[in-house]
């Protein structure tokens, strides 16, 4: 699976615009991402391990927040995740 990284977060992926990971759910794929690129963890997850409210994740073209299983939605090797930080409001990415 491929995860597309937004420009402000590429500093944590050595400049890579996309990263290949494995995971059978959205949550597992995101965990694989932050395990491989530890600097992303505080930018994507709160201290209690929940995805930050200003981080939008899309599985292919579907907003994960609106999927029945949300972050537990199953994924396959051909799927793509896209991380899109919200622009409006406070508490942006560091």
Q: Mind explaining what this structure looks like?
A:
The chain has two helices and five strands. It is of the alpha+beta class. It has a single domain, classed as Beta-grasp domain (Ubiquitin-like (UB roll)), CATH 3.10.20.30. β3 (55-59) and β4 (62-63) form a beta hairpin. The N and C termini lie far apart (26 Å).
The proportion of residues forming helix, as a percent range, comes to: 10-25%
Question: What is the count of distinct domains?
Answer: 1
Spatial strand order of the main sheet: 2-1-5-3-4
**Corresponding CATH superfamily:** Beta-grasp domain
Largest sheet, strands/sense/barrel: 5 strands, mixed
Beta strand count: 5
Q: What string, H for helix and E for strand, traces the elements in order? A: EEHHEEE
